[in-house]
Structure formats: structure tokens, C-alpha cells
Amino acid sequence: MKKIAILGSTGSIGTQTVDILPAIDAEVVALTTNKRINLLEEQARALHPEMVCAFDENAARDLKIKLADTSVRVLSGMDGLTACAAESSADIVVTAVVGMVGLLPTLAAIEAGKDIALANKETLVCAGELVMCKAREKGVSILPVDSEHSAIFQCAQAAQGNRLAKIILTASGGPFFGKTAQQMQSVTREQALAHPNWNMGAKITIDSATMMNKGLELIEAMWLYNLDPADIEIVIHRESIVHSAIEFADGAVLAQLGLPDMRLPIQYALTYPARVHCKAPRLSLAEVGRLTFYTPDNEAFPALGLARRAAAQKGERGAVLNGANEAAVGLFLAGKIGFTEIAARVAYALERIPYQKEITLDSVLAADAEARGLVLA
Predict the structure, then answer these.
(1) Strand-pair category, 242-247 with 253-257
(2) Is 224 left (phi over 0), alpha (psi -120 to 50) or beta?
(3) Where are the beta strands (DSSP E) in 79-205?
(4) DSSP letter string, 46-113
(5) Residue 216 and residue 311: Cα distance in Å, rounded?
(6) Rounded Cα distance, 322 and 369, in Å
(7) Which of 112, 250, 326, 334 is the most buried (most CB within 10 A)?
(8) For residues 209-220, average pLDDT
(9) For the chain, how are helix, strand and coil distributed in percent, rounded to 5?
């Protein structure tokens, strides 16, 4: 029986992970949330983990009262999150927290020798060099959960020692596909949160609307598959059926297809290399009927260019890009800046913060904090 810790169990990926547990032979040993303690209490009573963590200190105090009649340990803050990630009995850790907060617990899990089912893309965006180096040192597997990176991982099983020549990352295009840069000036919060294909949390949905999400995935793919960013192509695929593809030196292209449902990539990361029945609906190509592909509009979606530039430079540029973006998205969701101002503030942070090629964990954290400070000033 595989023992699993789920970081971010009350979010979109976390709840879908819990949903597929009956299909796999697994036991949950740790669960975490930020503030959604009512749902975490329900999960704890149903799954009987050894420990839970509410990142928010006040929420943790309330959760401890709610679970006082159980033997579940209640932790809080970053110390609690890293303790859940490094829990000695866990075999694999699902990192489904959103944002930079996922970096330290992921590193703690790797240090403890745990395999990682990675849904927190910011970990590799900000510190891919450090994380992948530590994973190789500890001999742990980084198994991607994002639908695009899972698709690449699944297709790569056919490589048999052959290097990937190219990755084709597909993007839905979000709710603003076809809009001009001028039209984007009037985008509202409600419009940006209306994703056409996927049901995700607010921050990731906004990232999809700006297409920063795809830029972050480009950086993540660069580290996961050891490719130059120039060998990673992004194409708009409105139907979200082709989840991504790979190309070999001879020009052969392999793709993974399926309906837009996260349960399949989550399950494959947890059961790899085995495949078992999944609750996700089955694809009928005849019912889909038509698949379309387009080149992204870099003028309307400047976040893509910013991410490509950060990917090419490496160093701490990913941490600056991500920290600035997280802060700017927060301002937009709070109604304090307009939609196009998100990318503009990220660009400002990238221009103002001096470039550093050599990175450490401390320098990554410092670059993240400086970027946030510039955006929020």
C-alpha cells in the first residue's frame, strides 16, 4: 500500500486527488490547507491521517479544537507544512499548494527521500536548478501532475533512450483568445475568472487568462526535461483534448489525448508505472469532431515573452518572474489594478532587479521577496 501526503488537500488538485484514492491502493498520512479547515476536518475524519496542517495560525487553532476528539496531530505554519511533507511514513508527496509557498516543503520532502507528485509549478519555476539537482542527489522521482507535463511524461515513455528534440505545449488560450491587445485593456475580474474548459483556483485561472500559466509551464518543462527553452513550442489548442506532444529527431510527433479532467494525470503520478481504472470520462474523437491549433498572439499576451526571456536567462529570473506575478495577480483579484497591469508590473520587476546567474536557496527567496515588494510598492 502506497502512503501519501497531500499538501493543499482542500484545493482543486487536492480534492481531486482525494476523489481518486478509492481507485488506487493508498493510505493518506498527512493533509494540509491554508484556511479551509471545515473541509480539512471532513477529510481528516474520512481518511484518518497521522497529521494535518493549517498554514494559517488562527485556522490551525480552530482546527485543533475541531479535531480534539481524534488522535490526529494538528500543525501550523511553514514548519507544519514541511513536517507533513517530510513525514517519515510517506512514500510520495502530492505538492498541490499554490505559489512560492510550495518550494520549502518540496525541498524538505526530497531531502527526506520522498518521491514528488508535482502540481506546484512554482517550485521549478523559482528554483528548478536546485530542486532537480537535489532530486538527483537523493534518487527521488519528480512525477508531473499538470496535464501538460503529465502528457509529455507519458509520451516520453516511448523514447527508449532517445533524446526529445522538441516539446509542444498546448494551451487553451483562456477566455480571451482572439482579443487584441487594445481589447484586453477593458477586461474585468469576472471575465478573467471564466475559463472555458478547466475548473481551477482563482490564481491559476487568472494566470491562464494572461497566459502566464503557459509561460510558467515552459520554464517547468525546461527543468523537467532538460531542454533549451527554444526547443519548447507553445500552441493554442482551444478544445483542450491534446494535452501536449513531443517530437523526436526523425520528426515523429507523439501526443497524449483526453477530455479535460485532472483525475487521470493525478492518478498516473500516484500509480506510475501501473495504469488502473480511472473515474475520468472517456474520449470519443468522433464526438469531439474537430481539433484546432493556433500560434499565440504575443502582443495581446506579453506574459509569454516575459517568461521566455526569464527561461533563457535562468539564474534567479524565474523567482523574480513568479514573485512579481503572484503579487500582481493578487492586486488584480483585489480590484486594485487592471488586467493588463499584471504583465506590466512583472516586466518592471524583471527590469529593476539585477540579474544573478548563480543561485542559492537564500538568493531565490530574496529575489522572490524583492519582486513582490516592487510590485506592491
Answers:
(1) antiparallel
(2) alpha
(3) 92-95, 115-118, 142-144, 166-171
(4) HH--SEEEESSHHHHHHHHHHTTTS--EEEEHHHHHHHHHT-TT-SEEEE---SGGGHHHHHHHHHTT
(5) 9
(6) 10
(7) 326
(8) 96
(9) 50, 15, 35
Asked if 257 and 188 count as a contact pair (C-beta separation under 8 A), the reply is: no
pLDDT above 90 (res 311): yes
- Grid coordinates representing 58? 488562527
Residue among 176, 173, 175 nearest 184 (CA): 176
**CA pair distance 6, 17, nearest whole angstrom:** 8
Q: What is the pLDDT of residues 12-53, one digit of tens each?
A: 999 999 999 999 989 999 999 999 999 999 999 999 999 999
Say if strands 242-247 and 166-171 run parallel, antiparallel, or are unpaired: antiparallel
pLDDT class of 199 with cuts at 50, 70, 90: low
- How many whole angstroms separate alpha carbon 15 and alpha carbon 25? 17
Cα separation, 286 vs 168, whole angstroms? 24
pTM here?
Answer: 0.93
Q: Are 235 and 168 in contact (CB under 8 A)?
A: yes
- CA-nearest of 88, 132, 73 to 106 is 132
Q: Tens of pLDDT along 92-148?
A: 999 999 888 999 999 999 999 999 999 999 999 999 999 999 999 999 999 999 999
Residues 233, 219: Cα–Cα separation, whole Å: 12
All residues at 6 or more sequence positions from 180 whose CB lies less than 8 Å from its CB, including other chains: 297, 299, 300
How far apart are alpha carbons 261 and 252 in whole angstroms? Answer: 26
